[in-house]
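U., I forgot to send this yesterday:
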Amino acid sequence: MSDRPAVLIVQPHLGPIAPFLEGSYDVHRLWEGPPVEAEALIEAIVVAGEFPLDPALMDRLPKLRHVACFTAGYDGIDPAWCRARGLEVTHAPGVNHEDVADHAIGLILAAHRKIASGDADVRAGRWTPRSKTITRSLGGLGLGIVGLGAIGAAVARRGEAMRMIPSWWGPRAKDAPWPRAGSLIDLAKASDVLVVACRADESNRGLISAEVMRALGPDGLLVNVSRGQVVDEDALIEALKSGRLGAAALDVFETEPTDAARWADVPNTVLTPHTGGATTQAVQGMLGLLLQNLDAVLNGRPPVTPAP
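Result:
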């Protein structure tokens, strides 16, 4: 029997990090069905934060003491619930917010300046000498940001540099160089582009409701780089089909991977497969923090980046 700590990787898409762990740990993969005897040895699980923890799995791991979240977001994890059971929770903050903000700006450009649809027109032979798509300049557009954390502030800085006029709303006031709207509805009414960049949890599920979409209006663009559940997706699809909302650019969805058929007849959309923070540098940063946190917790030291 090995004297190295045993670690369980939970989601299959995290499988590529296994080789980086195998030098120090006995690594098991949940989707491969680790042997029952391994369950008695596992001291840490590695998870992606957007997926809910399975309490039944946790109950089968008597030596578990560390929930190591590979991502910055940990909305699928309840740190208080874990701490009550003696489990340390860590995550990877501050490594991909600039990349997510870059992606948000890319979505704005692709949707507002019709870059994605223009590409489709050229490829389909719909470009004619008489056709010319005219869009509004970015300059002077109201850029509303829901949630002024690291991602939201990074979006605001970029928007300001591109001559947009940022404002924001969040449930708590904070010092910021941009004005805070009195309410989410007020922010939507004042915005041409509304970027959702807030932290996701059960309290704000469906926060971007049909009412918010109506306030944003038939010329408004909704951009979501937070989590899919923050937006009422059924209401969004209905608003786009009816024309009550102008356009949407989404990197995240209620269910991932999203069903392509769900979007097949939804107009004025730009969709990307949850890649906002997926850069080489960000993944390297997350991996580095994962390794540091595992080493600290499993060797009895305080974690490097505990979840608040």
